[in-house]
Amino acid sequence: MSDCIFCKIINGEIPSKKVYETDKVYAFHDINPEAPVHVLIVPKEHISSHNELNHENVDVMKDIHLAANEIAKQLGISESGYRLINNCGADAGQTVFHLHYHLVGGTAMGSKIL
Ligand code: 5GP
Ligand code: ZN
């Protein structure tokens, strides 16, 4: 997708602070962190939101979740804990329409979802 910010980050057109990369996923520090650790994990394939997951493209979710485990270990939050968050659509506040998971941690966030 030529006008997608995260596609441009994945192909290097827009710089990012890379944390982790495989042939299927790319992860980088959020530009506007909301926690001491705030990493975005994205599939290299352009999938615009969670709504667009289907039987053909869902295998990448395995890679995203395993990436989250590796990154949590790498950044020292696997034992202290973290959240893995996806915002889908307007009510969730999705602003970038390329599927992504926020990996946030490094602080106690309490037990409330909202
Ligand atoms: P959403 O609200 O769609 O779930 O989250 C989009 C996230 O992307 C936000 O946390 C925002 O700070 C981050 N973001 C937007 N543009 C850029 C960018 O150019 N670089 C990086 N590293 N993060 C970005
Ligand atoms: Zn994209």
UniProtKB/TrEMBL annotation:
Task: Name the Pfam families on file.
Answer: HIT
Motif Histidine triad motif in this chain:
98-102
The HIT domain extends over: 5-114
Among Gene3D superfamilies, the record links this protein to:
HIT-like
- Keywords for this protein: Hydrolase
| Catalytic residues, chain numbering | H100 (tele-amp-histidine intermediate)
InterPro entries reported for this sequence: Histidine_triad_HIT, HIT-like, HIT-like_sf
**Entries under SUPFAM superfamilies matching the protein:** HIT-like
Extract one GO molecular function annotation from the record. Answer: hydrolase activity
Q: What is this protein called?
A: HIT family hydrolase
Q: What is the lineage of its organism?
A: Bacteria, Bacillati, Bacillota, Clostridia, Eubacteriales
